[in-house]
Amino acid sequence: MREETEKKEEIEKEETEEKEEGKEEQREEEEKEKEEEEREEEEEGEREEEEEEEEEREEEEEEEEEEEREEEGGGGGGGEEEEREREEGVGVEEEEEEEEEKEEEGGGGEERGGG
Q1: What does pTM read for this prediction?
Q2: Residue 114: alpha-carbon gap to chain centroid
Q3: For bias kind Acidic residues, which ranges apply (predicted)?
Q4: Per-residue confidence (pLDDT) for residue 76, from 0 to 100
Q5: What is the spatial distance between Cα 48 and Cα 59, in angstroms, rounded to a whole number?
Q6: Domain contains 50
Q7: How far apart are CA 56 and CA 43, in angstroms?
Q8: How far apart are CA 110 and CA 115, in angstroms?
Q9: 29 in a domain, yes or no?
Q10: Is residue 22 situated within a structural domain?
């Protein structure tokens, strides 16, 4: 009888130890999963931050380009027609300046060459 009781106690003790080991393994596994989740969240946060920074840089570049366009031509995306008008306007001004210079130099370019 005593041997049977000792065997039962030993079996119960082993089962208890196995349960505790199982619980410990489960705790360790849960901890690993938790750490992995935290790592993934951190990486995702970093990725999102990088994407936001990239978007901000792109927006700044677009704004700078738009400002440059506005400084160059005053319209920023006005199209070919406005650009042509600007070029023609500059051309007209240059022609007027040339005519004025000719007049100052020798009495007008058209009259001088006529006969």
Answers
A1: 0.41
A2: 66
A3: 27-108
A4: 47
A5: 16
A6: yes
A7: 20
A8: 10
A9: yes
A10: yes
3-14 in b/e form (b: 16+ CB < 10 A) is eeeeeeeeeeee
Report the distance separating Cα 109 and Cα 103, nearest Å.
Answer: 6
- Number of residues written out for the chain: 115
**51 within a domain of the structure (yes/no):** yes
The CA distance from 18 to 12, in Å, is: 10
Amino acid at 49: E
pLDDT tens for each residue of 42-63: 999 999 999 999 999 999 999 9
Q: Indicate the number of domains in the chain.
A: 1
> Which residue type occupies 87?
E
Closest-CA residue to 69 (of 83, 55, 84, 89) = 83
The rounded distance, in Å, linking the Cα atoms of 49 and 71 is 33
- Residues 24-29 have a mean pLDDT of 96
- Where helices occur in 1-115 by DSSP H, the ranges are 2-73, 80-106, 109-113
For the record, the structure tokens of 46 come out as: 């970093």
Domain interval for residue 33: 1-66
